[in-house]
Write a structure and sequence with these properties.
about 70% helix, mainly alpha, adenosylcobinamide-GDP ribazoletransferase activity, cobalamin 5'-phosphate synthase activity
Length: about 250
Protein backbone atom coordinates (compact mmCIF):
# COMPACT_ATOMS: atom_id res chain seq x y z
CA UNK A 1 0.00 0.00 0.00
CA UNK A 2 2.76 2.45 0.98
CA UNK A 3 4.84 1.70 -2.11
CA UNK A 4 1.80 2.11 -4.32
CA UNK A 5 1.01 5.40 -2.62
CA UNK A 6 4.62 6.54 -3.07
CA UNK A 7 4.44 5.63 -6.75
CA UNK A 8 1.28 7.68 -7.07
CA UNK A 9 2.85 10.60 -5.20
CA UNK A 10 5.93 10.62 -7.40
CA UNK A 11 3.76 10.38 -10.48
CA UNK A 12 1.71 13.37 -9.33
CA UNK A 13 4.45 15.50 -7.80
CA UNK A 14 7.26 14.94 -10.30
CA UNK A 15 8.09 14.04 -13.88
CA UNK A 16 9.88 10.84 -12.88
CA UNK A 17 8.93 7.88 -15.12
CA UNK A 18 7.26 5.84 -12.40
CA UNK A 19 4.13 5.04 -14.41
CA UNK A 20 0.54 6.03 -13.82
CA UNK A 21 -2.39 3.80 -13.05
CA UNK A 22 -5.66 3.92 -11.13
CA UNK A 23 -4.38 1.82 -8.23
CA UNK A 24 -1.41 4.03 -7.41
CA UNK A 25 -3.56 7.15 -7.76
CA UNK A 26 -6.14 5.82 -5.31
CA UNK A 27 -3.42 4.75 -2.87
CA UNK A 28 -1.90 8.22 -3.12
CA UNK A 29 -5.25 9.91 -2.49
CA UNK A 30 -5.78 7.81 0.62
CA UNK A 31 -2.26 8.37 1.99
CA UNK A 32 -1.24 12.03 2.43
CA UNK A 33 1.94 10.87 4.17
CA UNK A 34 3.17 9.68 0.77
CA UNK A 35 3.74 13.35 -0.15
CA UNK A 36 6.63 13.98 2.28
CA UNK A 37 7.95 10.49 1.51
CA UNK A 38 8.13 11.54 -2.15
CA UNK A 39 9.93 14.66 -0.95
CA UNK A 40 12.94 12.54 0.08
CA UNK A 41 13.30 11.19 -3.46
CA UNK A 42 12.62 14.48 -5.23
CA UNK A 43 14.81 16.44 -2.82
CA UNK A 44 17.77 14.09 -3.33
CA UNK A 45 17.56 14.66 -7.09
CA UNK A 46 17.25 18.43 -6.70
CA UNK A 47 20.34 18.49 -4.49
CA UNK A 48 22.58 16.91 -7.15
CA UNK A 49 23.68 20.21 -8.79
CA UNK A 50 25.05 21.35 -5.44
CA UNK A 51 27.62 18.55 -5.62
CA UNK A 52 28.96 19.72 -8.98
CA UNK A 53 32.14 21.79 -9.28
CA UNK A 54 31.88 25.18 -10.88
CA UNK A 55 31.15 28.86 -10.28
CA UNK A 56 28.44 29.65 -7.74
CA UNK A 57 26.09 31.36 -10.26
CA UNK A 58 26.34 28.38 -12.63
CA UNK A 59 25.51 25.92 -9.88
CA UNK A 60 22.57 28.06 -8.77
CA UNK A 61 21.24 28.22 -12.32
CA UNK A 62 21.64 24.45 -12.68
CA UNK A 63 19.69 24.04 -9.44
CA UNK A 64 16.75 26.11 -10.74
CA UNK A 65 16.71 24.20 -14.03
CA UNK A 66 16.82 20.88 -12.16
CA UNK A 67 13.87 21.88 -10.00
CA UNK A 68 11.64 22.36 -13.02
CA UNK A 69 13.03 19.38 -14.95
CA UNK A 70 12.27 17.06 -12.05
CA UNK A 71 9.03 18.55 -10.75
CA UNK A 72 7.56 20.04 -13.92
CA UNK A 73 5.65 23.30 -14.13
CA UNK A 74 2.20 22.24 -12.94
CA UNK A 75 2.81 23.78 -9.53
CA UNK A 76 4.16 26.94 -11.15
CA UNK A 77 0.83 27.23 -12.92
CA UNK A 78 -0.76 27.22 -9.48
CA UNK A 79 1.45 30.15 -8.46
CA UNK A 80 0.42 32.09 -11.57
CA UNK A 81 -3.30 31.37 -11.15
CA UNK A 82 -3.26 32.20 -7.44
CA UNK A 83 -1.36 35.42 -8.10
CA UNK A 84 -3.98 36.50 -10.62
CA UNK A 85 -6.83 35.50 -8.32
CA UNK A 86 -5.46 37.44 -5.35
CA UNK A 87 -5.13 40.55 -7.52
CA UNK A 88 -8.90 40.55 -8.09
CA UNK A 89 -11.10 42.85 -6.03
CA UNK A 90 -14.07 40.75 -5.12
CA UNK A 91 -15.23 37.69 -3.22
CA UNK A 92 -14.35 34.00 -3.50
CA UNK A 93 -16.63 33.48 -6.50
CA UNK A 94 -14.91 36.18 -8.51
CA UNK A 95 -11.47 34.91 -7.57
CA UNK A 96 -12.32 31.31 -8.45
CA UNK A 97 -13.51 32.50 -11.85
CA UNK A 98 -10.08 34.03 -12.47
CA UNK A 99 -8.43 30.69 -11.64
CA UNK A 100 -10.10 29.20 -14.71
CA UNK A 101 -8.87 31.97 -16.99
CA UNK A 102 -5.96 30.83 -19.18
CA UNK A 103 -4.59 34.35 -19.64
CA UNK A 104 -1.73 35.48 -17.40
CA UNK A 105 -2.36 38.79 -15.67
CA UNK A 106 -0.11 41.17 -13.79
CA UNK A 107 -0.63 39.34 -10.49
CA UNK A 108 0.38 36.00 -11.97
CA UNK A 109 3.40 37.44 -13.78
CA UNK A 110 4.62 39.11 -10.60
CA UNK A 111 4.06 35.96 -8.55
CA UNK A 112 6.07 33.69 -10.84
CA UNK A 113 8.85 36.30 -11.16
CA UNK A 114 9.17 36.46 -7.37
CA UNK A 115 9.13 32.67 -7.20
CA UNK A 116 11.96 32.21 -9.68
CA UNK A 117 13.99 35.02 -8.09
CA UNK A 118 13.52 33.48 -4.64
CA UNK A 119 14.56 30.05 -5.88
CA UNK A 120 17.61 31.42 -7.67
CA UNK A 121 18.71 33.44 -4.63
CA UNK A 122 18.35 30.34 -2.45
CA UNK A 123 20.45 28.40 -4.95
CA UNK A 124 23.16 31.06 -4.87
CA UNK A 125 23.25 31.00 -1.09
CA UNK A 126 23.38 27.20 -0.94
CA UNK A 127 26.12 26.99 -3.57
CA UNK A 128 28.24 29.39 -1.52
CA UNK A 129 28.02 27.16 1.57
CA UNK A 130 29.74 23.84 2.20
CA UNK A 131 28.71 20.85 0.10
CA UNK A 132 26.93 19.37 3.11
CA UNK A 133 24.52 22.30 3.03
CA UNK A 134 23.02 20.69 -0.05
CA UNK A 135 21.21 18.43 2.41
CA UNK A 136 19.00 21.42 3.17
CA UNK A 137 17.45 20.91 -0.26
CA UNK A 138 16.14 17.52 0.85
CA UNK A 139 14.78 18.92 4.11
CA UNK A 140 13.07 21.78 2.27
CA UNK A 141 11.46 19.41 -0.22
CA UNK A 142 10.14 17.14 2.53
CA UNK A 143 8.80 20.21 4.29
CA UNK A 144 7.15 21.51 1.12
CA UNK A 145 5.46 18.21 0.42
CA UNK A 146 4.48 17.95 4.09
CA UNK A 147 2.86 21.38 3.84
CA UNK A 148 0.77 20.23 0.90
CA UNK A 149 -0.22 17.12 2.82
CA UNK A 150 -1.37 19.19 5.80
CA UNK A 151 -3.65 21.18 3.49
CA UNK A 152 -5.09 17.90 2.24
CA UNK A 153 -5.69 16.74 5.83
CA UNK A 154 -7.25 19.92 7.19
CA UNK A 155 -8.69 21.58 4.11
CA UNK A 156 -11.88 21.14 2.12
CA UNK A 157 -12.45 21.96 -1.54
CA UNK A 158 -14.87 24.67 -2.73
CA UNK A 159 -15.88 22.63 -5.79
CA UNK A 160 -15.21 19.40 -7.66
CA UNK A 161 -11.72 19.00 -9.06
CA UNK A 162 -8.24 18.07 -7.92
CA UNK A 163 -8.68 19.69 -4.52
CA UNK A 164 -11.84 17.71 -3.86
CA UNK A 165 -10.22 14.50 -5.08
CA UNK A 166 -7.45 14.84 -2.50
CA UNK A 167 -9.11 16.50 0.48
CA UNK A 168 -12.17 14.28 0.26
CA UNK A 169 -10.26 11.13 1.22
CA UNK A 170 -8.37 12.32 4.30
CA UNK A 171 -8.97 14.07 7.60
CA UNK A 172 -7.04 15.55 10.53
CA UNK A 173 -6.10 12.10 11.85
CA UNK A 174 -3.97 11.54 8.76
CA UNK A 175 -1.84 14.54 9.74
CA UNK A 176 -0.07 12.50 12.42
CA UNK A 177 1.36 10.15 9.82
CA UNK A 178 2.38 13.14 7.72
CA UNK A 179 4.41 14.53 10.61
CA UNK A 180 5.87 11.12 11.40
CA UNK A 181 7.03 10.61 7.81
CA UNK A 182 8.78 13.99 7.80
CA UNK A 183 10.58 13.68 11.16
CA UNK A 184 13.43 11.44 9.90
CA UNK A 185 14.55 14.29 7.64
CA UNK A 186 15.81 16.06 10.76
CA UNK A 187 18.52 13.40 11.02
CA UNK A 188 19.94 14.73 7.76
CA UNK A 189 21.24 17.84 9.51
CA UNK A 190 22.52 15.95 12.58
CA UNK A 191 23.95 17.14 14.92
CA UNK A 192 22.41 20.49 13.99
CA UNK A 193 18.84 19.25 13.99
CA UNK A 194 17.63 22.67 15.09
CA UNK A 195 18.18 23.77 11.50
CA UNK A 196 15.73 21.18 10.20
CA UNK A 197 13.40 22.12 13.03
CA UNK A 198 13.42 25.76 11.93
CA UNK A 199 12.78 24.75 8.32
CA UNK A 200 9.86 22.52 9.27
CA UNK A 201 8.42 25.25 11.48
CA UNK A 202 8.62 27.66 8.55
CA UNK A 203 6.90 25.08 6.32
CA UNK A 204 4.12 24.66 8.88
CA UNK A 205 3.60 28.42 9.10
CA UNK A 206 3.35 28.71 5.31
CA UNK A 207 0.90 25.81 5.17
CA UNK A 208 -1.24 27.36 7.90
CA UNK A 209 -1.20 30.70 6.10
CA UNK A 210 -2.14 29.02 2.82
CA UNK A 211 -5.02 27.21 4.47
CA UNK A 212 -6.36 30.40 6.00
CA UNK A 213 -5.93 32.31 2.75
CA UNK A 214 -7.65 29.57 0.76
CA UNK A 215 -10.65 29.56 3.07
CA UNK A 216 -11.11 33.33 3.18
CA UNK A 217 -10.17 34.28 -0.39
CA UNK A 218 -11.25 31.23 -2.39
CA UNK A 219 -13.73 29.37 -0.20
CA UNK A 220 -11.49 26.32 0.20
CA UNK A 221 -8.44 24.40 -0.97
CA UNK A 222 -8.15 23.65 -4.67
CA UNK A 223 -5.39 22.33 -6.90
CA UNK A 224 -3.89 25.76 -7.50
CA UNK A 225 -3.57 26.38 -3.77
CA UNK A 226 -1.84 23.02 -3.29
CA UNK A 227 0.64 23.68 -6.10
CA UNK A 228 1.39 27.24 -5.00
CA UNK A 229 1.88 26.09 -1.40
CA UNK A 230 4.47 23.58 -2.55
CA UNK A 231 6.45 26.21 -4.44
CA UNK A 232 6.24 28.90 -1.76
CA UNK A 233 7.08 26.52 1.07
CA UNK A 234 10.15 25.18 -0.73
CA UNK A 235 11.56 28.68 -1.16
CA UNK A 236 10.78 29.85 2.38
CA UNK A 237 12.22 26.68 3.91
CA UNK A 238 15.42 26.98 1.85
CA UNK A 239 16.00 30.58 2.90
CA UNK A 240 15.28 29.79 6.56
CA UNK A 241 17.69 26.86 6.32
CA UNK A 242 20.45 29.02 4.84
CA UNK A 243 20.01 31.67 7.53
CA UNK A 244 20.04 29.05 10.29
CA UNK A 245 23.06 27.26 8.79
CA UNK A 246 24.98 30.52 8.50
CA UNK A 247 24.17 32.22 11.80
CA UNK A 248 23.45 29.44 14.31
Amino acid sequence: MVLRALQGALGFLSRLPVGHDGGSWEAFRATPASMPLAGYVVGALLALPMALPGPTPTIAFAFVVTVYLVTGINHVDGVIDLGDALAVHGGPDERRAVLKDTDVGAGGALAVAVEIAGLLMAGLALAALSSRAALLVVVAEVGAKGGMAQLVCFGSAPHDGLGAALTGRSGPRSALLVVASAVPAAIITWPRIEIAGAMFLAAAVVALGSLRLARTALGGVNGDVLGATNEITRIVALHVGVVAWTHW
